[in-house]
Amino acid sequence: xxxxxxxxxxxxxxxxxxxxxxxxxxxxxxxxxxxxxxxxxxxxxxxxxxxxxxxxxxxxxxxxxxxxxxxxxxxxxxxxxxxxxxxxxxxxxxxxxxxxxxxxxxxxxxxxxxxxxxxxxxxxxxxxxxxxxxxxxxxxxxxxxxxxxxxxxxxxxxxxxxxxxxxxxxxxxxxxxxxxxxxxxxxxxxxxxxxxxxxxxxxxxxxxxxxxxxxxxxxxxxxxxxxxxxxxxxxxxxxxxxxxxxxxxxxxxxxxxxxxxxxxxxxxxxxxxxxxxxxxxxxxxxxxxxxxxxxxxxxxxxxxxxxxxxxxxxxxxxxxxxxxxxxxxxxxxxxxxxxxxxxxxxxxxxxxxxxxxxxxxxxxxxxxxxxxxxxxxxxxxxxxxxxxxxxxxxxxxxxxxxxxxxxxxxxxxxxx
Length: 416
Hints:
Elements: E1 9-17, H1 27-36, E2 39-48, H2 60-73, E3 77-80, H3 86-96, E4 99-101, H4 103-114, H5 118-135, H6 141-144, H7 159-194, E5 199-204, H8 210-218, E6 235-241, E7 245-251, H9 261-266, H10 268-275, E8 279-285, H11 291-304, E9 312-317, E10 328-331, E11 337-341, H12 350-362, E12 365-372, H13 377-385, E13 389-394, E14 400-407, H14 408-414
């Protein structure tokens, strides 16, 4: 399945400086992506253009320069820090006589390496198939020839048409499997809502420290590494939380600038955990010079999955890398939590973060004492079915004195 990864494969990186706009990419981030994919960078080629060249994306002179470098360094892969059209990718591969991978293909390759769960592998394969389908448009000449010869005569279907049909069928099968997983996740979320268990999802730019914070809050040992997309498969943990009760904490895949649309579509079942959460903790690398741009990118992805209305606040992580910065909480003009500064690695600011979570969820989860008459036993049974009852006492008259915890919306519905 279009797996182009090689262990410590020597590569050449190509980066084009464009005027500020949608096509501008980050060269340092691209280098980190290549290293995360297991590549050894032989050299980096940069150039400046106003618009991409139709044939090679870069100019023909620069393309020939890269061809000479490919021969000099004996590399088999050239990575472009931009999205290439299928035609540009093919033209470059013919000229350079080696494999060419664009930014989308590189990210897909990293995801293919990191997927561990059955669901994660399905999601990555779906994204790869959708990406490959675009690469079959006006394919190589041998794909256009109809099959012929002894034992190969058929209805006249070209090889290109066959490949397209096979990919469509495979996409249909994988999509059906992911839809089933999506239904299962929806049932699990419905059960959590019935049990009034709030879900908190960690979101943020890749390598912001989400998994380290997840481990700190849950006592888990989720894989942590100082590399892009160290976490791919979503992880959910049921955690007892002081002052709130049981919560579900979800660690999610990191976002990145210009995250391929195929990936957002393929990971829709997973990302629904984010859009259906009660609270989002937007984790940010406080030591990152480009943190404001990364915040904007995360917000764009949240909008694309319809999670922009979910309550959230910013968690500035890695303050241990900044001198004279202590854990603290920042509030807005309405006294609501806006930012919390922590170091998950050094376990600093955890108390402040816990207090911020409690305060934010308290606006949604209500703990209240109520008295029910004996004739309201049916209502009492409903509360027990929703696991909303914390404690109960019965007085001599048979009245039920209950301490309950429920989302405010559901509490209002019970006692309208």
